[in-house]
Automatic annotation (TrEMBL):
Belongs to the acyltransferase 3 family. Its main location: membrane. The keyword Cell membrane applies. This is Acyltransferase 3 domain-containing protein. Keywords: Cell membrane, Membrane, Transmembrane, Transmembrane helix. Residues 37-364 form the Acyltransferase domain. It is a multi-pass membrane protein. The chain crosses the membrane at residues 42-63, 83-100, 121-139, 181-199, 206-223, 275-297, 309-327, 347-367. The keyword Cell membrane applies. It is found in: Cell membrane.
Length: 384
């Protein structure tokens, strides 16, 4: 039994007081600040993941070809499908850590944490899906706008019960606001947090080892990225439960960063050239990459312009996450329709469209903070 385990065992008044003190311990300042600094860069990475596509579908034809240019494919693969893929496991690890810090596994504590997640997770999840469904319904009802919709999905006016269920739960893959699969899966992990706590208490090392092995062997349920949420949420919970300090990563940071870039190159070549190496280079890149970005943000000087900018961006990160799609899809379709880019032009747009979309989101977020702060607070779960 670990030292932290012993703090949870109510053997005496002194031990109870010790456990209460441990329960009230704030997250170490260095860790909480680094997590905050990572939020906006990880959201930017999410936007670039969704920028990987270089083709658009309209009602009667398609523009662009995803793989017509080997150079474009390799560049996009390296950034969107390798380096930017740190975002999803990074967010789940942070979420698991923050949820389980000071979590004592009681029914009361569990109920309290679930109650707190209703306005921060469930309400935004429902509202953003409603907004997206409403947007598609409006576009489908206007002939001039309906031409910009691929027509591959059932029109909202023809939804049956199963279509509505899929639009909100994403039981066929994604909800209507498809990036909210992250929030859906996070809510599932939160619901499972109480039995997870007891697993961590009595068999944490075994659980962590088995989940890592299952991930490397690709035995976790679902398809990427749906196999990552349970592993990295549990990893964050494991780190928080055992009060594992992360300062040791700073000594390895430069080496891990070099390793991350090398593994990203190998994984890119493996995907583009079909080298048959499987997912291991990518998985190792994820592990070394998470340590690397944690080390990198530790070098940002407090009160510098970059520090202040990232902290400001952290406040906007949820809104950017929620609003960047289907906005980016619409912006991409409009630009492609007007420009009709070739392979080189599509690669340039791959880099330019995300900053444009993020900029629009930040402008709207800033305006809403002034004009309708209460609405913004509801839409972002109180994160505005």
């Amino acid at each position: 039994m670990s030292a932290f385990d012993s703090q949870l065992m109510p053997a005496s008044t002194g031990q109870s007081q010790q456990a209460a003190s441990a329960a009230a311990t704030p997250v170490p300042a260095d860790i909480s600040v680094r997590f905050a600094l990572l939020r906006f860069p990880l959201i930017v990475a999410v936007v670039y993941i969704h920028s990987f596509v270089t083709t658009v579908g309209l009602s009667s034809f398609r523009i662009g070809n995803m793989y017509s240019s080997p150079t474009s494919w390799m560049v996009r693969e390296f950034f969107s499908q390798e380096l930017c893929r740190l975002a999803v496991p990074g967010f789940f690890l942070i979420s698991g850590y923050m949820f389980f810090w000071n979590f004592q596994g009681s029914l009361q504590g569990y109920a309290t944490r679930l109650k707190k997640r209703v306005p921060t997770l469930l309400v935004p999840y429902i509202l953003w899906n409603l907004l997206v469904i409403g947007l598609y319904a409006a576009l489908q009802s206007v002939p001039a706008a309906s031409g910009f919709i691929s027509g591959q999905n059932v029109p909202v006016a023809q939804f049956d019960a199963m279509d509505w269920l899929n639009a909100f739960i994403g039981w066929r893959g994604y909800p209507a606001a498809y990036q909210f699969w992250f929030i859906r899966d996070l809510m599932i992990m939160v619901l499972l947090s109480l039995p997870l706590y007891w697993l961590l208490r009595y068999a944490s090392h075994v659980v962590m080892a088995l989940m890592l092995a299952a991930w490397f062997l690709q035995l976790l349920p679902g398809i990427p990225p749906f196999d990552e949420p349970p592993l990295f949420f549990v990893a964050g919970a494991y780190i928080a439960y055992h009060r594992i300090g992360l300062a040791g990563l700073d000594r390895l940071g430069p080496w891990l960063s070099a390793l991350t870039l090398a593994l990203a190159c190998v994984s890119t070549a493996n995907e583009v050239n079909n080298l048959g190496l499987g997912a291991v280079p990518h998985q190792l890149m994820i592990l070394s990459g998470l340590a690397s970005i944690y080390w990198l943000v530790g070098h940002i000087r407090a009160q510098s312009a970059l520090f202040k900018g990232l902290m400001w961006g952290a406040g906007a990160s949820f809104f950017v996450f929620a609003a960047h799609e289907p906005l980016m899809m619409g912006v991409r379709k409009l630009i492609y329709y007007v420009v009709r880019p070739d392979a080189d032009g599509a690669l340039l747009l791959y880099f330019l469209i995300p900053p444009l979309v993020i900029g629009i989101c930040l402008v709207v977020w800033s305006a809403m903070r002034v004009v309708m702060p209460r609405v913004l607070a509801v839409l972002t779960g109180g994160r505005a």
